[in-house]
Amino acid sequence: MIVGPALAGNANADASLARVTVTVPARLHLGFVDLNGELGRCFGSLGIAIDTPRTRLSLGRGERSRVDGADAARAQGYLDALVERFGLDRRLALRVEESIPAHVGLGSGTQLALAAGAAVARLCGLDLDARAIAGLLDRGARSSIGIATFEQGGVVLDGGRGDNDEPPPVLSRLPFPEHWRVLLIFDHSRQGLHGPEEAAAFRRLPPFPAAQAAHLCRLVLMVALPGLAEAELDRFGAAIAELQRAIGDYFEPVQGARFLSGSVAAVLAWLEAEGIVGIGQSSWGPTGFWADRQRRRGRFIGRRRPPSLAGGLGPLFCDQPRAQSRRRHRGHAGRALTARRIGPMAHWPLSSALLPDKTAPQEARPGRPTHGEETPWRLRTSCTC
Q1: Under a CB-based contact definition with an 8 Å cutoff, are residues 330 and 152 in contact?
Q2: What pTM was computed for the model?
Q3: Least C-beta-crowded within 10 Å: which of 126, 185, 203, 337?
Q4: 2-378 CATH
Q5: What gap in Å lies between CA 61 and CA 92, rounded to an integer?
Q6: Is 31 left (phi over 0), alpha (psi -120 to 50) or beta?
Q7: How far is CA 309 from the centre of its chain?
């Protein structure tokens, strides 16, 4: 999370703040390690912070309550809930400048809620951390991945939901290797299950086999996390792919297939045939992903053409990143690559993303670099099937 006050005067005095800007990353949900729940805890999520897409909003004082920009309706609900809960002056102006696409598996709702809550807390002098904000705005019901990546980024494993209503505890947070990349595959014609439909889907599913849950826990603990810690992409990627197969097949009765989008599934199958590891679908999808090492400019990814989809897809190439300004967080966010379909049978140029953040959130004044600020890599975020 980046919180940057645009102000005049003392940065430590909340009364002097004119406007607060919050920027937060999306997250990938790689899967659940225990959907059985016989041991008293259920779910247990593994996820990664990625630096694009992102949500960026600003909050200031105004003459009346006003919310505009991307995903304004949801942002209005979060702002109203906090104003009512703490009896705040309603004359607040919230603008959502950028928003993670909704209901595509990237944690848009949680990140928007946390960003709005962090802005309100900073501007109004409330003592609220991310977990407190999540509780007030009914986020983190099954997973703490969005909360943990909001706080510090990195690759996060949580301990699953217990008997209380608290978000699951974070068991592990590891940095994402700097030379790895994540490419996202979007299908803009589909949305993943959410809201009441998501809750109903969980109720319709049969019990998850205890033996399979035990195997997935062992797989993540003894293969995926050590592979990540030692930067062994093949081991990490193979474990993620196996986790994805198990969870995807379990969810098939409610989402129609292992992966929600047939177009995304076709691309993932092609990538797997090309020897690419670490493929899967984030959360309920339809967004797909793959993990790979950074490639040099113009290097061809794959020896064959991708599958023929509506509108056509061409070969995949990887471009070098372009330098832009960035601030760092503690932990590493995955450097997302994004593929843009330029036109029918056109190439997909790939761009590298911002470097992961490594330090605690910093406050910044416009035009004045914060301690620890560096030049990052910035990417476009658009990948269409």
Answers
A1: yes
A2: 0.78
A3: 203
A4: 3.30.230.10
A5: 5
A6: left
A7: 26
Query: Taking a C-beta distance cutoff of 8 angstroms, is the pair 178, 51 a contact?
Result: no
Please give the DSSP secondary-structure letter assigned to residue 174: E
Compute and round to an integer the Cα radius of gyration of the chain.
Answer: 21
Q: Is 355 helix (H, G, I), strand (E, B) or coil?
A: coil
How many residues can be counted in the chain? 385
Residue 26: strand, helix, or coil? strand
Other Cβ atoms closer than 10 A to 215: 15
Which are the contacts of 287, defined by CB distance < 8 A and separation ≥ 6?
A: 104, 105, 106, 184, 185, 186, 187, 264, 281
- Per residue in 296-335, pLDDT (tens digit) is 444 445 445 555 554 444 444 333 333 223 334 445 556 5
Query: What pLDDT, on a 0 to 100 scale, did the predictor assign at position 135?
Result: 92
Contact between residue 107 and residue 29 where contact means Cβ atoms under 8 Å apart:
yes
- Residue 80, helix vs strand vs coil: helix
Axis-axis angle for helices 145-152, 108-124 (nearest 10): 50
| Integer angstrom CA distances of residue 292 from 66, 104, 178, 193 | 43, 21, 11, 28
